[in-house]
Fold:
Amino acid sequence: MKQIPYGIDDFERIIQEDYYYIDKSEYIRTVEKQASYVLLVRPRRMGKSLFTNMLMAYYDILNKDKFEKLFGHLVIGQKPTEWANKFMVLKLDFSMVENQLENLEKDFTEYCFNQLSLYFKRYRDIYSMEEREEIMGCSSIKAAIVQLTSLNKLKGLRTYLFIDEYDNFTNTILAARGVKAHEAITRGDGFYRNFFQGCKGTFERIFMTGVSPVTYDDLTSGFHIADVVALLPKFNQAIGVTETELREMIEYYRSQGQITRTADDIITEIKPWYDNFCFSSRSYGVDPTIYNTDMVLRYLKELISEKLPPENMVDYAARTDPKKLDHLVLSEDLANREERINIINEICAKGYTTGVVEPEFPARDCGDERNFKSMLYYYGTITFGGWEDGEPRLIVPNKNMGDLYLDYMLKLAQDQGLQLNGKYKELQSAIREAAVEGKWQPMAEVIGRICQDYASVRNEIRGEWDLQGFLRGLLCLNRYYDVWPELELGHGFSDILLVPRGNPECPTRHSYIIEVKYVGLEKKGKKGEKDSLEDKVKEAGKQLAQYVADHHLCDGALLRGTDLTPLCFVFKGHRLVVSREMGIVVGIVDKIVEMVENKSKMG
Structure:
């Protein structure tokens, strides 16, 4: 039986040791049709390194005798391109470079020369001892690369450079030390910029991967050398797992007797957590959405070995580094700090924002609204999800990334002085009562008090976005429920759905769907306030009626057989002034929804 290649990015090992391989070899032709130098950026743990290693194995002149074993069963092996096994291959993986600024240039140079040494060992029959020693004796890696490629041209050899994680250590420097430290190595006479200048015009082809095009923009300002293909539709499915590929994988392990659950059952469970990436606005609605590769492999590996899915569906290893997100949001080096925080609030509350993703921009401009949203896209925390008013809708792709925002929202509040330690146990106890006994009122009371404290450190609640984002983050602090914001139900989007986690240690019997309304502080006068509050409650009741009639809730699978209680929370400023259970008779709801649908069809 083929093993799950979780954590393995060595293509030759995967093929030779008969691990399961999702065939991406058809994209070799796509890469060849681009310019000579290509930069492909994708979020962490999507499969960039494995894709790079596949390309290396395909082009390496030393793999000619084992080409059939490596590629014969793959799409590209049925009709190889002319460039198969025609190149000398040099691989640099800059995730291996130490990221301490004080020794960075020294570590970078040592690493590159070590890779050159391995290159010469691999191709030892092609170079004389004198040639190897002369190149290894160069004073800089730039000089060594120029001399190597010049020698290869004299010998009639073609050279292909692969740089994996080209921005790994520079992103760490940017997050830890700021823009100036980043520019010191990527601009002017910076050593990393000099290295890239040495690459220009020396290698016949270069293929690079990374997380964002920011470092590239700084490195190559004035002498761009590569096509940045991150947003092109033809590369949309090159990295990651499509649902078709996932189903084929599941069916293989079912045929081996390793999985008893159906593909539909598994996909229903993991889709909300790992799916929904789209890497080109023009691919939305045309191509299938993409699953995160590592998340899928982690899930299947545990399902096969333990016969149970992972206890925690959140894959922290595949998330964006919180420190990098923190730098991006709070950095004093970047302009418009308050605007960046507001964008985070908006995404937490609505589950999306709108904006155009920029193909490249320098580090110093990351704080601009459009570039900031672009960086969130490149980190994988938002992705293309449709259109709104002529602009791309950038949505939170799944719960794994949604929880990151909610965790971060709470962190911002605590950084500004909110004390949750004393209230955490109280909130846990109240949520337990709601989950096990159906007593939701203590939960509402604790939430109301915490929201008041939150307002005191935030000066004021700035509106529904800020409030909902904080509330969702707060409700994530429990063992009983997964918090699903903005779930599409009944032709609308619910504010908060508390879905049982299915943990046998936490026997949840009650689920909740909460509609949050907000009455601004500008509303004055007792009569006006009463009318406004009642209007909000009625509005919430109509929305909840539509939601609870949706088949996702009616069939019971999502709620794991628990009783669903619709709740309405109305806030006035920072105060929770209404918390009410909405008595909805589900038998009549179908008629209400039918009327709404008919009205919608009539325009």
